[in-house]
Automatic annotation (TrEMBL), chains A, B:
Keyword Coiled coil: no
Signal sequence range: none
This protein's UniProt keywords: DNA-binding, Repressor, Transcription, Transcription regulation
Molecular function GO terms recorded: DNA-binding transcription factor activity; transcription cis-regulatory region binding
SUPFAM superfamilies attached to this UniProt entry: Homeodomain-like, Tetracyclin repressor-like, C-terminal domain
Protein's UniProt name: Transcriptional regulator, TetR family
PANTHER family (alphabetical): HTH-TYPE TRANSCRIPTIONAL REGULATOR BETI, HTH-TYPE TRANSCRIPTIONAL REGULATOR RUTR
Top-level taxon: Archaea
Boundaries of every HTH tetR-type domain copy: 10-70
Organism: Halogranum amylolyticum
Family matches, as InterPro entries: BetI_C, Homeodomain-like_sf, HTH-type_TetR-like_transc_reg, HTH_TetR, Tet_transcr_reg_TetR-rel_C_sf
UniProt DNA-binding residue ranges: 33-52
Length: 200, 200
């Protein structure tokens, strides 16, 4: 898999990504057009087509961009304490998205198209692989240090991402308490699976 | 909320629902048309429009139909043992859908449209309310009988539905192991939250 931390966005593509972000929040995926993105960008559609042939090419780049944002926010975590680091990762996955509810709506539309669009599917899978890789590294570190129980780190990581994806779907479809409920559930699950008996 | 167990489908509407089911599995939501449903039904589009004005009316009825199927499968559970009953409910939510992967694809497309279509949103919320109501009844029964710890049954129910919805989304977007992973996660969560200390 390509290391997403090695992807970079040049100044114009960064501005196009920010325009895409605003257009997705305003119009959703189904009603998104290059014209609407160009309006947000403040330039012509040709200025966008110079970098991206199609709307789908641009959206695949946008999924890379979102992962890059996430990776940046993770890179700024300074603590190496496994327990604290896992808490911060789960906050990034389940608390921070609260600020971007409209984006969650657009992402769910794109996810629902994954069975029909291989490029979307590949990108969602890569992003999920990468986030699971980061979670697993923290869990394995905690196991090595003896602060977490010796669990199947791959399973625990997939379980946590199931809670994350459930929260993202429920936040769009059902109710406003989906993210806080899932954050609490993730903590309860981490306590039950990773924390040695008698841990406070 | 309307009690979904009181909804019934007459013989022709039952046949239309089965045709809708097949058409959704074959074409997905975006490419679904009344014409394609009529082909599966083996009658004219007028025969469908006699019962349903629009495709969306028909799909809202289809969401009722799916809940009715689920309620029927639950009604046939004979055991009143809370622990066993909860296991069977979780199997219905996380094992049985494996047989209907194509339907999960179509349902996720409809879910992603919930922010734009109030009728879909209302129905998804009603269905979620009803399933949580059934889960909560089992959990409260177990608490009353002293076989489950005295937990916040509403939170535990929402947590379990977060795992269920995460599995449904991941099964469509990401990987083939999403449902079994979530089934295991649900059991681990139930053990941690509901089972008294020292329970095997």
């Amino acid at each position: 898999m390509t290391d997403p931390t090695e992807r970079t966005f040049s100044e114009p593509t960064e501005a196009i990504m920010q325009a895409t972000y605003r257009a997705l929040r305003n119009y959703g995926y189904a009603d998104l057009t290059i014209k609407r993105i160009a309006e947000e960008y403040g330039k012509s559609t040709a200025a966008i087509h110079y970098y991206y042939d199609t709307k789908d090419d641009l959206l695949v780049a946008f999924l890379d961009y979102l992962l890059e944002q996430f990776v940046d926010s993770i890179r700024s975590i300074e603590t190496t304490d496994p327990e604290r680091r896992l808490e911060i990762l789960l906050d990034e996955l389940l608390v921070t998205p609260e600020e971007n509810r409209d984006l969650l709506v657009a992402i769910l539309e794109m996810r629902s198209q994954a069975p029909y669009k291989e490029t979307f599917r590949d990108r969602f899978r890569q992003n999920d692989d990468y986030i699971r890789y980061m979670l697993k590294a923290v869990i394995n570190h905690g196991i090595d240090e003896g602060v977490f129980d010796d669990v199947d780190a791959d399973h625990v990581t997939r379980a946590l991402m199931t809670i994350v994806d459930g929260a993202r779907t429920r936040a769009v479809v059902l109710d406003d308490t989906a993210l806080p409920t899932a954050r609490q559930t993730a903590s309860e699950y981490v306590d039950a699976m990773l924390m040695p008996e008698g841990h406070d």
